[in-house]
Amino acid sequence: MKVTRVAFSKDLxxxxxxxxxxxxxxxxxxxxxxxxxxxxxRGVGTDHRAVRDQWLLDGRxxxxxxxxxxxxxxxxxxxxxxxxxAAKIKVRRAVWKRAADESERKRLFALLKADTWPADPxxxxxxxxxxxxxxxxxxxxxxxDTGCYRAFLRNGKAWLAVMSIDKGQRIAIPLNTDRxxxxxxxxxxxxxxxxxxxxxxxxxxxxxKPHGKKVLGIDMGYTEAYTDSDGDRxxxxxxxxxxxxxxxxxxxxxxxxxxxxxADKAEAEGKPAKAARxxxxxxxxxxxxxxxxxxxxxxRDLAFKAAHSVVDKAAVVVSExxxxxxxxxxxxxxxxxxxxxxxxxxxxxxxLHTVVLRRGxxxxxxxxxxxxxxxxRTGLLLGSRVGDRFYxxxxxxxxxxxxxxxxxxxxxxxxxITRYTPYTEVRRILAARTAAKPTVETVQPRL
Length: 447
Description:
Elements: E1 2-8, H1 14-38, H2 48-58, H3 66-98, H4 102-113, H5 121-130, E2 141-144, E3 149-154, E4 157-162, E5 171-174, E6 185-190, E7 193-201, H6 202-205, E8 214-220, E9 224-228, E10 233-236, H7 238-268, H8 272-282, H9 286-311, E11 314-320, H10 334-341, H11 345-358, E12 362-366, E13 384-386, E14 389-391, E15 397-399, H12 400-411, H13 423-436
């Protein structure tokens, strides 16, 4: 398994930075063209070698070394492919809802897997719906294969000699580390520095501490990263950090909106110099970008620590599938909606999956529908969740997160509810089970 490491330039001169920026902008023009030409259905199944060979025959010129534009072409087509694969998850859910016949489902799934779905009208329509044609404005990235750079040590520090626009003249970049980057590199020019992203083996740089022995269900939350089916919390207090950052950003953006209104007013009054000065001095994004990056790094660090805490106990981790959109936000206040919109559920899910694989445990993903609304003692729709409490039909009060985690664990062995079963079908199955229990016939399930 590979993980990404990032090194940074150190004491890079303005002249070298300017040369790299020119190179990145020219490659950015190519990125935009590739997305425009192949980001639609017409680009399905496109191989970067075929495109490369055709462009060479056509004598295409991009004002950059051929090796650089070829690697950028490959990188962009890979991004487009990843974009389509993400859309296929939603299309598979749509297939589950539409196709009741198992053979029809298999046929449609096979077409998706083989990338021959454009021949089927239904799949074509669904992919158009969920895989919107993409565009890009990225002009600050350079992708390098092993022939485009040379890494070496000088005075105990790593350096990178990168291919430039001028033939035979490489740009030497000093790094803030003594480790030499290897493999394909991605250079990102940001805030006057160059970030060097490269992949390394997880076994070399990451924890290989043995995993635990239990089988645990995991509920991902807002106030804490994870709650397991034993009732233990991991990453407790992360919600305070997320809420504090969301509230602070609200104040910042309120102030920015007032300044923007002043700039618009000055421009309307015929004072373009004043409007330009306000936008230049008060409405920049460098500080916001640095703050966002610090916050994301902090949350990511806490999420991975919490994930390691889970795997310390578990050999098998069962978690919810949270790729679907959260329903029911309309009942929340404006502040609650704003805070939930900043909930980094993707970071939590990625951290848990990555740590489980690194440490040799097993990760199983189950359907999340109605796990928070079901009584974990009976598996029936009896009771209701209010805040962090679950009130059962017989008066017993359970911790809502622990109750949900136990339902997630039980969902692992549920043969009737698969990962992609629509939430309406899950509700129908649970309601039927509830009505079939003779001991609770008089209790109406909360739907």
